[in-house]
Each structure stands twice: as structure tokens, then as C-alpha cells.
Amino acid sequence: MSGSRERILGRVRRALADAPRDDGPVERGYLRRHGERTVEETVALLAENLADYRALVHRCTPDELPSLIGRLLAERGSASVLVPPGLDASWLAGTDVARVADRAGSTAHELDRVDSVVTGCAVAVAETGTLVLDGSPDQGRRRITLVPDHHVCVVRVPDQVVSSVPEALERLDPVRPLTWISGPSATSDIELDRVEGVHGPRTLEVVLVG
User: Fold this and answer.
1) Per residue in 116-135, pLDDT tens?
2) In degrees rounded to 5, what are phi and psi of residue 198?
3) What mean pLDDT, rounded, does the chain reach?
4) Spatial distance between the Cα atoms of 31 and 24, rounded to a whole number of angstroms
5) In this model, does residue 175 exceed pLDDT 90?
6) d(Cα 78, Cα 114) in Å, to the nearest integer?
């Protein structure tokens, strides 16, 4: 441990030396959700907030999903699509786009040459318009959703939709590599000029299936 770090930690310990210790549960008095909604209202709120973040939102039935994904890839002009190892193969039955496997040895340059990526998700938060990926087999490693410029994320409705962040956290394993996505990647400079695609996909398409 460096001398500077030890000095800082020593100051923290001295500052806390007289603080009362309380090893009991932390009181969490905040609201778990804001208002009561039906399932339909919760899904509608998710779609509204996703669109507000400039994600492109689509709705379909399970039977329509393969043809919808095929159409989205065709409209994008995608010649290749990254496929997580556990993705349902039937989802891509509506397209003949070349599949690229999620390989441990893939470099950032190789991933950047892939046109699109299709994944599932772990949970979607209606109040914040957020998708959470946890590295499960149908989502793959974090980097495959951060490098390609076009991400199609499939959300099962209503099973994977919750109202609030506290409800989402109850479903998630904190030791997994969680990626929280609220719209396509975007940032802005001091002049508030918005630039998209800096830290992830420039285009995020969300398919609500149910």
C-alpha cells in the first residue's frame, strides 16, 4: 500500500474513531415505486421513456419477432450480426445476415467491423427507461453491446419489466457484470452539443415482445 493511501485511510479512521457503531439494518424509507400502475400502464411508461431517450421502440408478438428482427437488420443494411452464445436461434430465423459468434479472443477492431448485435436483457425499468444486461448467455459479454454501432435488445413483456430501480435491484445479482442502458450512447460538451455513439451504440432498438 502506498504511503499516500495509508495517510488518507489513517485520517478516515481517526475521524470515525468516536462515531457510534450501528450494525443494524439500514433504514430505507424511500418509495419503492412512484404510484400504482397496471401492467399495461407500466409497459406503456417503459416505451415512452425509452423513446424519450431516443431509443427506437417496437412491439410484436413472439411469432412476429423473427420477421421483425430480420426487417430491422435489413433496414439498417447490416451484413453481419453479433450473436451471444445463448440467444434463441429462432429470433434470427427471419434473416440471412452473417452471424458472428461472441468469442473471447475478439479484438475491439473486429467487433467494430460488425454491423449489429442482437441480445436479450435481464430486466427493464419503466420509470427510468433503462435496460439492464447482466452477461447472461442471451446477452453475452458487456463489450459486444458497447462496440457495434447498432444494438437490437429484446425485452419479454411483462415478465422482464418492473416499475422502479429498487424493484430491478431485487431481481439482479450484484456480483454479475451489470450494464445499465438508458437510450443510445450520447454525451455533450460544455456547449451542450450532443454527440451520439461515443461510448456505445449510436442506435438502440428495443423490441417489446408479448
Assistant:
1) 999 999 999 999 999 999 99
2) -80, -45
3) 91
4) 21
5) yes
6) 8
Start-to-end C-alpha separation, the chain: 53
What does the pLDDT read at residue 176?
95
| DSSP state, residue 129 | T
Whether the CB-CB separation of 206 and 151 falls below 8 Å is answered with: no
**Mean pLDDT, residues 68-96 taken together:** 96
Residue by residue, DSSP assigns 44-105 as: HHHHHHHHHTT-EEEEE-GGGHHHHHHHHHHHHT-SEEEE-TTS-GGGGTT--PEEEE--TT
Q: pLDDT tens digits, residue range 150-162?
A: 999 999 999 999 9
The grid coordinates of residue 14 equal: 481517526
Distance (Å, whole) CA 102 – CA 87 = 11
Annotated domain spans of the chain: 36-209
Q: Is the pLDDT of residue 200 over 80?
A: no
Does the N-terminal peptide bond of residue 166 adopt cis geometry, omega within 30 degrees of 0?
no
For residue 157, give every residue at least 6 positions away whose Cβ sits within 8 Å of its Cβ, in sequence order, or none: 43, 59, 208, 209, 210
Q: Is 140 left (phi over 0), alpha (psi -120 to 50) or beta?
A: left
Homologous superfamily in CATH for domain 36-209? NagB/RpiA/CoA transferase-like (3.40.50.10420)
Integer-rounded Cα Rg, in Å, for the chain is: 21
Mean pLDDT in residue range 62-91: 97
